[in-house]
């Protein structure tokens, strides 16, 4: 008998990815999966790829249904987690994939999100120094954002080491379409997206606050771009150097023991395709020959390390399981 | 200590997929991986997604290197397996992913392939009646072709049940580009493929002989089409009905106990995306309202059930392991 | 001063393509473009690519607005053309891109479409024998369906010449996503479509009736497949041969003088990418070496020859303009 | 009788695009098209989409063949133009699509390209102040690079107006695969590219020198990324502001009279798909709310404004034709 976990908001892309990961996890067992409009449908009809749970019917998202689990994954739209979480007993562990509990400063919340700030939970990025222990001791963990985790892992060690100027960071990051969710919107139609790159929320993306809080950056320009692929984030982080340290060496030292963060051999650059389906982040860094800027490129799968995989990694730590249980280090390519 | 397996021809797409599956397999251990032009390179440079073996160096493809393994996967270009296999002792089990040993009739070989017919090994499609037992008793197994397995599973039970006319079958099947291999060719460039559907080998594809041999079809028209996606095969099989049996019911009965063959609920049609990364085949069937023809649609991942996954499934059977070990039933989507 | 044309339903994909073609047409001038929900918006915001009309505001779709034009293109949802057409004077020429007036037999309409049969207009496929003259003499023309035109051009000459059996035709046709329109639907999201092939309306597509009516086929099985590309239709037509005539020669003779129908040199197969943006259809045919079936492959751009381009071609004929005016013979690739 | 133009290097993507544009140009006539390996092949077999010239046979690239034309487009690999150009009489106008003659400073050439610096021709970017007149007076024009033109148009007016700091510019730019040419290389295979974003030449791209020379930037970090689409460039230019001027207003004023450069309405961001097939560049700019940086996003079609279209625009100017002749302002979408 495995540890019983619930997935609230199982009909979306992050929810579907959680179901896939739970099905393949040696220690977890699906207690219940819930939805809103899709409650009453089988998982087989909502997520045709998740054959393991094909006959499981989605329940309605209600606290009573979820409270029966040992751990609940919340994969709800931003702003909806707080209400559900408030009705779950402290004994039920929660990993929230939404943004509700990530930010410490209510002013940051108000700047980028509608509604009131719900509070702050332990930030679920185990690769940050000391964070793994905090997660292990928590019953409430706020998962990272997808752009955020991909950028923070590229940037935080450089700022911590005094190698990159926290006051001058420029990020341009491309995301696959699954990052925008499964709601039917015209600008996300295949016809509009295939063959096209489209920037959005230029100069004002909500992950900026989260990236600054967790990476130590103080001033950051970020431009997100929607790319014609279903998954993957490629973040280019251009930071002004302080001193002449080799940025690649700093990153390699920081992540030497991390199973999911891979600083590639010199000269080999990350590509999102190589991270597909895995919980890995691939990194490479160099100094720009014209400007001298540090350029770090970071690739991940937005639905795994950027959402469901990160959530399972956090759950593993909270539950005392091996941190890599049920998570792939290897991507699927081509 | 796991069972020691070797991969010959590890630098191609099927080889890379074998490496990924072996890395995640609970019972197998990589003894050696070999290549030709890429011998001497690390797996990390050749397959950036296979992080588990990133520091393993590809050896040269030589029998002495391979003979040390308990089982050898041959992922070589068509026509090159026979020479290597001839130099391996009988005690070393072999699964050949190439076409060399699939066909029984030398005349079929000569009609579709260059060079001489190498011989016939046990046909590695466990879902055919009685075939699982033959595979278990064999030390030499010829893996299926990717179009072949996708089509045969859709067709064989209908012909066996006397429901479809073996003398009048029309197949149109689309394949992702990885089915065409990793050699650099102009017509496989992303620029040429993205946004375009392109038929090839129209009226004369080499899998026709294999499909006929294993499905019982006697006359078959097949049109293969290159589709703008990296993986996946979608086969549409239109067969003249004999009698009025429900084709879906026949398929559902045939595969009721198969872990990897899924006849979808009525009205739900297969899509290749739902099989991505899995060893599953999804099937659906109906009767055409204008012509009365049986139309079966079959979807699979050409690199898994169509190549490396099928090979691991065969190896599992040959080695007395659980048939599903190391293989995913669930796809990765979106 | 050009001939004044109106586009009703200008906010969809066919409407946008009409705007683009009108902007580049030497003889036509845009009188008005109308929409429903988008009325009041500029064309520049609805169709960012149509810079020529960027400041033109979409009017509401009302007969009074349209009646002022010399010719009206109706690019409305199926079933909505009849009501608008009924309120336009006979002196205003109309080309209807919808299905409303294509079918002759009300029973065919009822079998495949909801609502009542609106009537029958001149069928707008000039490459059919004698049809060009009928179109020239008409003030009301029903444009072809996209699957229909691509299939009919491949099939009609073979049936007319007694070379293909009209009672045994199997068609499998893939379409880019723009053929499904611009309404936001989950199954058309980029995340769902990219990397996947998905059949739909298997055994019961509404274009079957239109294809039979115009090609002479009497029994036809058609399977449509949604392909991961924005535009393009690739139809594979497998017909039982009558006699031993070379199907390619029959097609080449039929279209020798047609500017938009291209029978490719022997051995060169059509690809949808080569027709992108053009009003051309590319054809090739062979005899299957196993079954002897005639296999014709036909490629077109569903928004041009399958919709807006065909409409302009019909308009050119109706207005006495050069038939190719404003239409590209060359595609855009890669 | 049109003006007689030649295309040297007609078998590549830029060459094919030139052929398409020439076929649709009201004043130009194709004198000859040449190739290397493909000499002797028909254009119909090399570029199946260019039906207008389907029976034209590619000649061998030899000066004698080209010298007969009024104007020669050189679409040769970088480094090969100089040798051909040297053998053409001054009376034959030349537009070189390659990089050979773009740079003024031999040191810049040596820093980024192999071989010796060939010299400097008039820089073929008519939208730069005063440049149109220089082009009109030249018989030798060096076309812009594709990244270069997309970035320069975004940046030059801001630096010229003293609004952006020339010493601190960060560019991240994504390109479709056709920008990498048509030679068969493994990393350009559809299997490798689809579903993946891949950076390359990070910190050291050869267009940096060209961008600095033409935009006035003095220090520039540029990261190019290969995107999974056949065409299109999306450049994100993040520049440190000098003063508080509205960058959008500066750009709008600079390009008010330009037919091919479109500053979009406030809030509407460029997308590469909207420029497909057109000679247009779409621009938008804002100030980043966290960092205050100016962020300009610029989109173009790399084969049109980034190569063949720009070349035709330059030729039009050199030949005294209307500058927009034969060039589309409207893109093709979706």
3D architecture notes:
- The structure is a homotetramer of 334-residue chains.
- Chain A has 334 residues and is of the alpha/beta class.
- In chain A, 26% of the residues lie in helices and 23% in strands.
- The longest helix of chain A is centred in the middle third of the chain and has 15 residues, at 146-160.
- Chain A is globular and about 60 Å long.
- Chains in contact: A-B, A-C, A-D, B-C, B-D, C-D.
H/E order of the elements of chain A?
EHEHEHEHEHEHEHEHEHEEHEEEH
Structural class of chain A: alpha/beta
Strand content of chain A: 15-25%
Number of helices of chain A: 11
Spatial separation of the terminal alpha carbons of chain A: 36 Å
Number of strands of chain A: 14
Q: Outline the low-pLDDT stretches of chain A.
A: none
Based on CA inertia axes, which overall geometry of chain A fits?
globular
Largest interface: A-D, 56 and 56 residues
Helix content of chain A: 25-40%
The main β sheet of chain A shows up as:
7 strands, parallel
Structural topology:
The structure is a homotetramer of 334-residue chains.
Chain A lengths: L2 E6 L4 H11 L4 E8 L7 H4 L12 E2 L2 H4 L4 E4 L6 H5 L7 E4 L9 H7 L9 E3 L6 H6 L3 E4 L2 H15 L3 E12 L14 H4 L4 E2 L7 H9 L4 E7 L6 E9 L5 H8 L6 E3 L17 E7 L6 E7 L3 H15 L16
Parallel strand pairs in A: 1-2, 1-4, 2-3, 4-5, 5-7, 6-7, 8-10, 12-13
Antiparallel strand pairs in A: 8-11, 9-10, 11-14, 13-14
Helix pairs in contact in A: 1-11, 7-9
Main location (chains A, B, C, D): cytoplasm
Family (chains A, B, C, D): Belongs to the NAGSA dehydrogenase family. Type 1 subfamily.
Pfam families (chains A, B, C, D): Semialdhyde_dh, Semialdhyde_dhC_1
